[in-house]
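Encode chain A's predicted structure.
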Amino acid sequence: MKKWDLNTTDVAGNAAIGWAVRAQHGGIVKMLEREDVNLNTADESGQTPLLLAAEYGQKDIVKMLLERRDVTPDTADEMN
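Encoded structure for chain A:
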């Protein structure tokens, strides 16, 4: 995975971490909890992985993300 930029986003602003949260893949989210991955990358609507996990009711992923110091829980999306 060192060859790829895991923070690169698609046309809708989704990074790998956002896709993993949307697909409810806690194991992939755990794998992406690396220093070189921005866990606060928001999609084009301003939704961060933490917001998406909360919205989809993914309690384990929410807890996993909140345990990280580099996750910003008070980031507002564009709908607020």
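The radius of gyration is 12 Å.
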